Amino acid sequence: MGFIEKNVLVRSRSMGFVYTIIMMFVFSQLSSCTPDTVIQLIKDFAILIVLSTVGIAIFSIPLGRKFGMSTPMAFALGLGSIAGGFPASYTLSVEAAKVCAENEEEYQVLEQHMLPKTLVAGFVSATSGSVFIAGAVMAMFFK
User: pTM here?
Assistant: First the structure.
């Protein structure tokens, strides 16, 4: 819509700072983990990721095609829900554009095409996902 400037965090050179702050919360929790806990988490996450990927493919590809998207774009938007929103959706979009582009112009076109869609998909899935999870937890513990 144009009322928010593009790449504000990159232009202000604060994207690295934001990533650092976000990752501090992640890594601070690892200090209390034992090797057995980490191994069990890896197993659980592997199963969860495989099942989620298959489920997302089953639902996102036909739905995306119905809205006129290509199969890869529909699947990428669906996979954005696994990433959990920002900053993962941003990082995945930027890195995918870097890998696919052969020059700076192609990179800019790909990023401008993918980034808004994946960011919105990530925000929506993180927001609605947290509401559904909170509702399920409330129903389980506070009947």
Answer: 0.56
